[in-house]
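Please, structure for the following, as tokens.
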Amino acid sequence: MENKCQLLGKGLYKDIPEELTLGRIPTISDLDYTTGDAFDKFLLDKILPVSIEDKINFNDLLEIDFQWICRALRIHNYGPYHTTTTIWCEDCGETSSGEYQVDLRRIDCKYLPDKFVNEFSIKRAEFLDFKGDVVLKLPTIQKILNAYKDKQFQSNDGRVNREFARICYMITTIKGKVGMTPIEIKLMIEKEMSSADFMMLRGIITDLADYGLRAGGETKCPVCSSDTAVYMGLSEDRFFRPTLEDLRAWKKDRQSTSA
């Protein structure tokens, strides 16, 4: 089995090697009992440090590399098969619900270009009225976890506006001002940026930072047998809970390979 994972952000790190060595997820790891918002933090603090042989600060990983490593670790320990509950097919227009085994290797990834520099600049000319440039970076996984629990971004219903928090945590410079905190960036955007310009900002950031694993992959449609139906394959709690049939399919692959 392949036990190496070359990072998407190779060359961007100071103290993290370009390639990590995958190990074993602990037999008793509480992965079955950790869900929701705590799951990524549990992976970061409890699973990766004992399942990756290289001793690094996992908090410094780019978010896209955290997801990339989690997928590689899942395949390395449990195989590539995953049981999903929904498949969508554009060819026949059907949405199928049930239990369907899919292959995680069919999830595409958008790689960083050669000589990528982790800094994006949005010029003031892109906006309708806002008078300033915006500079941002791909976030680390720790920044994203901090953003998602930042109470300064809570809406009236008590939930954190994750999209807005994410944007403010990615921005490093706005209107030439460096070193602003996410809440200071939030206040400036709310005060000086129109709703239309914020929608421009949000859309441009989505385009600029669109790297890493896609949200899902392709599979065979259970209705029309088209090979381009799609499924969601996000790295979340259920992702690390293979079914017995998933593991049996992996076992069959391993036996045929070693025969």
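Residues 120-208 form one domain. The mean pLDDT is 93.
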